[in-house]
Amino acid sequence: MSVSIRQAKLTDIHELVPLAARTFPLACPPEMDRAAIEEFIKEGLNADVFSNWITGDDSYVLVATDGAMLVGYTVCVNGELPENAQLDMELPAESTVMLSKFYVHPEFHGAGVSKKMMTHLIEHYVTSEEEWMWLGTNTDNARAIGFYERVGFKQIGTREFDVGGAKAKDVVLARKLPSL
Hints:
Elements: E1 3-7, H1 13-23, H2 34-44, H3 47-55, E2 59-66, E3 69-78, E4 85-87, E5 96-104, H4 113-126, E6 132-138, H5 142-150, E7 154-163, E8 166-176
Domain N-acetyltransferase: 3-178
Protein name: N-acetyltransferase domain-containing protein
InterPro entries: Acyl_CoA_acyltransferase, GNAT_dom, MshD_Acetyltransferase
């Protein structure tokens, strides 16, 4: 396995959409309504949404590839702050980036793909104006929470997250970004 990380291109969308549909349910609690998950995927992880992220000035999309196959992706959005959240600290909108999506194909879990993607993201933001990175993940997603904590994120609160009309409880984690 030789995984490489690069910025996403519009030509990746035909693989990103099915990868998102495959990986998003893995982060949802097992009791979550499957119809709500499918609705979220249909509305929030479709080709138009990915196209907007890839071409947007305020977003940064990475893909992880193993040969020609996409095996992971991330989406960061500048200036987005947690909504429906109870936070222990305030994040400055003008210098905060939301790690909106961070997913790896299950066949590549434990293979170091997440660490490579996170390293690339952190290196990308070293030369930016962004000072903070935050994310939300389901409170039951212990594997993800453990990974984020190992790479420097700390819990700063909780939020309610809408998944296709169903409410999920997320932990909100944040980390200070390094700068030159």
